[in-house]
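Need tokens for this chain, all 256 residues.
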Amino acid sequence: MRASPAKGSRRARTSAVLAVGAIALALVTGCSGDGSAEGSDKDGAPARAAKALSSAELETLLLATGDVKDYKVTDGDETIRQDMSKLETDKPACDPLARASAAQPPGATDAGASNGIAQDPAAFKGDLAKEFEENFSLTIVGLSSYDGDGAEKAMKAVSGGIKACADGFLLRTTAAQDTKVARIAAVKPSGLGDKSVAFTLDEDLGGGFVLTSTTEVVRKGNTIATFHTMNSEAYEPGGVSEIPAEIIKAQVAKLK
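Here are the structure tokens for all 256 residues:
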């Protein structure tokens, strides 16, 4: 049974979303969905022949303020990215899931870039200001690129993790604090790109309160985009944070 957090204002919960989105992003994963056949892009070009983009090139492909109406970029790599060597789970099969949810490359590559995109307060005026406070969301977006069939292997690792990690796992971040993920569940992905998988994860915050968030992983050619959203809805009894469809659509459209 899902319990509510301690009583407080929605403004306080909005602040908590910002904190959780940037710090406790080390949550986890599951999968679903499909795209083109493994080993090739939808246009038939062999994915394994591709060369990885550099981190600098990936930076230019990230969403920027103005790319999605009423949203603005809020965070950069310095805020979001964590030291991969210190992001660990108690089940190795869950590592790609944890990394995907933390805007880190789910596969073996040094080419990565990330940012955060949140609703722009300026777009919510007058009576809509209350709506902004009640429905605020923050989405962390990560891009990673791979040589050969590395992106396909990374997607398989994420997809395979849902069975191995369905009953949850423990995650340790740079703060050396264990985060308990109680459950992973597959949900329907956007279907964009060459392949996409999506999942919810239940984070046990103690006191009977479970926070449910959503992650989606999309492959387009040899580039992978990860999306993880935290919003005010997740702090309501039975609430689940959902990734804004317009963010996924806009980001995938920018990928080569």
